[in-house]
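thought: fold this chain, then report.
action: predict
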Amino acid sequence: MNMKILVIDDKETLSDLVAQFLSSSYDVTTKSNGIEALAWLQQSNVPDLIITDLQMPKMGGLEFIDQVKQSGFFSEIPVMVLSCKSSSKDRIECLKAGAVDYMVKPFNPEELLIRIENILENTNQ
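observation:
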């Protein structure tokens, strides 16, 4: 059975691109903001990894990470940030909030895949 990845990004073209790239190895679900993603999680969906953007309407990535990490049920799900914000302040803020990795857009799809594999391998040990 394929591992599940939740991709959250308000730019549909980007989330579709990531989903298309990952779908040969993973079951990928896409949501356009943190509120949609939390609602999906609360419907008993538990992905093996969450990849989120930071800048989104309704609920941004950082607030979403906080919500996930504070919920006892989802707090163990690794969260990776994929954002165009490249300052070390943003990266540090996300890592402190509980993100396990941070990649800056535009990204190399092969690097993304390797990072995902590493996260999932480390999580399932």
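thought: worth noting. Residues 4-123 form a domain with the Rossmann fold fold (CATH 3.40.50.2300).
final: tokens above.
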